[in-house]
């Protein structure tokens, strides 16, 4: 029985990825173009999320600062999820809703990109971060699922929404990881050309 459940997870994940590929290729390409434009103009990418999405935002930033699949110069990216002293201070002084918005206000500048990752699209602290970013004339790339939730309604025509067409959190998060890999690869190719070795 457990083997069948395992096979079911693999099959459902593979089927969703194939189904989503056609639907998401265009917005992923738009997100790459937005991030490429920011980085090539000396701006940077800030990233945030909660829970598993926090870990994914840190992983994404680490791949840009370090490397994805090729050696290259470091790229300016920062996960707003990583500094426990800042996070706990902001939560204690202003509440959990403000933990990312205050950092966007501190570090975000016009031309920067804010990558937000939310499985449900309904995280209040992500919504507050988006508001703060839009006030600073930053652009947003949002990775969501479940139809996009409240975050989908916040975005402007200049932003990019990549919404995984599924309701199950595990499946959405698996596709978010693949999307992050596509973004890293696309940025590398746009900035440095050719294929990774």
Q: How would you describe this protein?
A:
The chain has 197 residues and is of the alpha/beta class. It has a single domain, classed as 3-Layer(aba) Sandwich (Rossmann fold). 57% of the residues lie in helices and 13% in strands. The protein has seven helices and five strands; from the N terminus they run αβαβααβαβαβα. A five-stranded parallel β-sheet has the order 2-1-3-4-5, sandwiched between helices. Strand 4 (139-145), helix 6 and strand 5 (160-164) form a beta-alpha-beta unit. Helix 1 (2-40) runs parallel beside helix 7. The chain starts with a helix and ends in a 5-residue tail after the last helix. The relative contact order is 0.18.
Please render the helix and strand layout as text.
Elements: H1 2-40, E1 45-49, H2 52-65, E2 77-79, H3 84-94, H4 101-107, E3 113-117, H5 124-135, E4 139-145, H6 149-154, E5 160-164, H7 169-192
Parallel strand pairs: 1-2, 1-3, 3-4, 4-5
Helix pairs in contact: 1-7, 2-7, 4-5
Give the overall average pLDDT: 96
Strand content: 5-15%
Number of helices: 7
> What's the CATH topology name?
Rossmann fold
Query: How far is it from the N-terminal to the C-terminal residue, by CA?
Result: 42 Å
* Helix share, percent: 55-70%
Report the strand count: 5
CATH architecture: 3-Layer(aba) Sandwich
Supply the CATH class.
Alpha Beta
Q: Roughly how many Å is the radius of gyration?
A: 17 Å
SS-based class:
alpha/beta
What's the name of the CATH homologous superfamily? Glucose-6-phosphate isomerase like protein, domain 1
Work out the count of structural domains: 1
Shape: globular
Strand order of the biggest β-sheet: 2-1-3-4-5
């Amino acid at each position: 029985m457990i083997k069948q459940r395992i096979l079911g997870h693999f099959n459902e994940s593979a089927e969703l990825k194939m189904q989503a590929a056609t639907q998401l290729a265009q917005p992923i390409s738009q997100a790459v173009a937005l991030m490429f434009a920011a980085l090539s103009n000396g701006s940077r990418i800030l990233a945030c999320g909660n829970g598993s999405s926090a870990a994914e935002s840190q992983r994404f930033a680490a791949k840009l600062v370090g490397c994805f699949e090729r050696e290259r110069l470091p790229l300016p990216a920062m996960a707003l999820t990583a500094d426990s002293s800042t996070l706990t201070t902001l939560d204690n002084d202003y509440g959990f809703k403000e933990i990312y918005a205050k950092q966007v206000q501190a570090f975000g500048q016009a031309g920067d990109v804010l990558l937000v990752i939310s499985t449900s699209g309904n995280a209040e602290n992500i919504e507050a971060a988006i508001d703060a970013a839009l006030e600073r004339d930053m652009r947003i790339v949002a990775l969501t699922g479940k139809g996009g939730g409240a975050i989908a309604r916040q975005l402007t025509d200049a932003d990019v929404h990549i919404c995984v067409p599924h309701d199950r959190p595990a499946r959405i998060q698996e596709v978010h990881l693949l999307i992050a890999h596509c973004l890293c690869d696309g940025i590398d190719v746009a900035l440095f050309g050719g294929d990774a070795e």
